[in-house]
């Protein structure tokens, strides 16, 4: 390479650097463009493939997928009461887990954000995040061991609470308890972040004006922490809605994820599985639309 060519390359690099320095949006586009483009391509491509497959049908004689467009899979989901039962069970479980996690997470998050000292806050945050460092299956199997017959839960109900007829093994209660444990950190962290942003002057002004703790919580703390509550509820609701491993290992009832898994694997009915997979997507779309209408995303 000659001196002239080397100088020309250095000059081009300097001009490019100067142009990027004057245009921050161009630097951001070059930095985030490739990964975001790849993610959108993969995600949107998979979603488009899912939606297209949902309109195909399975030949009952040859068990092969026929690329013939129709709404027969969606009619099956609407007309068969089994699928409605599975959907209602899944949505009910997701809602119950979300309410329970928010109820458990709020006092913990409030203590972390407003009460604990800096050193205690770090220890509590570490305790909240630490379960996420272990494998998902390890945590599920741990709760399966706790809730199984003759396990710790049975011993607790039989010997301490004097309830020998209560058994949680392979029940929806066991599934719900496991879900609550799994998603609790995802609910605590957004609520703690929202409460940490709450100005202390608001609470002091409320106390100076004679408001009781209950009134302060209802009119100041809860409205300002609502975006964090919504963010945490989105995590717990969506993760419960699509999970199929926990119901398979801990419980016996069928949920949407289990049904889709069986149709993809055992029944080899990919079109019906794709149509059923559209159901949680539609439910989450409606959930997010309601949250946006309530103004929960404006402060996030």
Q: Can you describe this structure?
A:
This protein has 13 helices and two strands; from the N terminus they run H-H-E-E-H-H-H-H-H-H-H-H-H-H-H. The chain has 300 residues and is mainly α. Strands 1-2 form a two-stranded antiparallel ribbon.
What's the helix and strand layout?
Blueprint: H1 3-22, H2 24-53, E1 57-58, E2 65-66, H3 72-79, H4 81-115, H5 118-129, H6 136-147, H7 152-160, H8 172-196, H9 200-208, H10 213-242, H11 245-250, H12 256-264, H13 270-293
Antiparallel strand pairs: 1-2
Helix pairs in contact: 3-4, 3-13, 4-8, 4-10, 6-8, 8-10, 9-10, 10-13, 12-13
SS field, number of helical segments: 13
> What is the strand arrangement across the widest sheet?
1-2
Instruction: Give the tally of β-strands.
Output: 2
Q: Note poorly predicted spans.
A: none
What would you report as the Rg, rounded to the nearest angstrom? Answer: 26 Å
State the separation between the terminal residues, measured CA to CA. 54 Å
What is the general shape? globular
- Coarse structural class: mainly alpha
Helix content: over 70%
SSE run: HHEEHHHHHHHHHHH
Strand content: under 5%
The overall pLDDT average reads 83
Characteristics:
single chain, 300 residues, mainly alpha, 13 helices, 2 strands
Question: In summary, what is this structure?
Answer:
The protein is mainly alpha-helical and 300 residues long. Helices cover 76% and strands 1% of the residues.
